[in-house]
TrEMBL record:
Pfam families given in the database record: ASL_C (PF08328), Lyase_1 (PF00206)
Annotated NCBIfam families: PRK09285.1
Entry annotated with the keyword Lyase: yes
UniProt signal peptide: none
EC nos: 4.3.2.2
Entry keywords, A to Z: Lyase, Purine biosynthesis
Name of the molecule in the record: Adenylosuccinate lyase
Amino acid sequence: MAHSFADITPQIALTPLDGRYRAQTAPLVDHLSEAALNRSRLVVETEWMIHLLDQQVIPGLRTLTDEERALLRAIPEDFGADGIAEHAEIERETVHDVKAIEYYIKRRLAGTTLEPLAEVVHIYCTSEDVNNLSYALMVKGAVEQVWLPALQGVIADLTALAREAAEVPMLSRTHGQPATPTTLGKEIAVFAHRLRRQERRIAADEYLGKINGATGTYAAHAVSVPGADWQQVSRSFVEHLGLTWNPLTTQIESHDWQAEVYADIARAGRILHNLATDVWTYISLGYFRQRLSAQGGTGSSTMPHKVNPIRFENAEANLEISGALLDSLASTLVTSRLQRDLTDSTTQRNIGPAIGHSLLAIANLRKGLAGLDVDAEAMAADLEGNWEVLGEAVQSVMRTLGVQGHEGLDNPYERLKDLTRGHRVDGAGMREFITSLGLPEAEQERLLALSPATYVGEAARLVAHLEDERA
């Protein structure tokens, strides 16, 4: 009988993010794992205790000493393998993860000067008060400290490539067909520009939080300490955590901010997906050469000549998975039945995989881009084989002269269509057509000097707009 992998120690990962791709996604473990959730809960609980006592919200209770504040703040800082195991042991008894956090903290206050104040831990809180703030801290940390820097890295890579290839002419393709030439740098700059807009948007996203009781009314707070300004206490605490205060909630914080963040990350992912498919296509056209040393290992199991664009294909797949998960998070988290249901509890535990697949995709994109060399000669050959793309230039000059009153230039579009549509036109054929038009000398010379490689308009200069976005 085959071995059961479920019984092997250490445990075998079920998902590739914690198995095959662990190295690329490991930075998210500090922010979006179950252990990170419990550490964030410890932060919220201990900071709430400090806040209530230092603000003297509860009459008759003293403020804390510096040593006592340090003791409380050391609890989440020291939460490691032993603490994770201890919390799990407590949770097996409580069958409630947040209550287990409360007991975990109280254990650490036993025998200290804070033991008489132990009941302040979790006072005036419902579990969701702790959870919503914990998730906000976790997602904020993951996005700002891990995911955004990764996105900024790929933007920097694209910006450098755009500048390097700003003047390298390239045949465009619209609807997959040869079209007005551009430069490789300009096309790459488009992606850098698109992603930079999303970067700024995501960097400006808000992370909301609340701490207002079982149904968002401060009922337990007001009946216990009627003289306190509980809304101000709540607001100042949420802002102390570096979050934006939400004044109107049910038992749960409404999660609208999460939907906004995930939608923004998903949109950036779709732009990255577009980048992956375009670069894959440029590789297939020969515009990029891949260095095997940069892509790694064997190109093909049976065809030794191949270097497969696996980094871009891997990125595509991971961005599709990430986008689907992020869309699901964004669409479901904004709904909770009446004042509370628990569907969000399960849903939010999948934030890590959603952002993890995106982070993995970015890592593959960056590695793939780093292994590319621009093949200007291949692009030049493609341009030389498609002189018919100058049809647009010729008919545009004819139109301009026609509207200025020059005769003999009727039906310019139709005449160029007859010349170029469905026909291959070489340089000699295009120049022969131009000289047959009877154009004024200046216009004729300008068109005769044109080639597909030089018909790129202001493409190279457009790359400079990336400089405008540096601030």
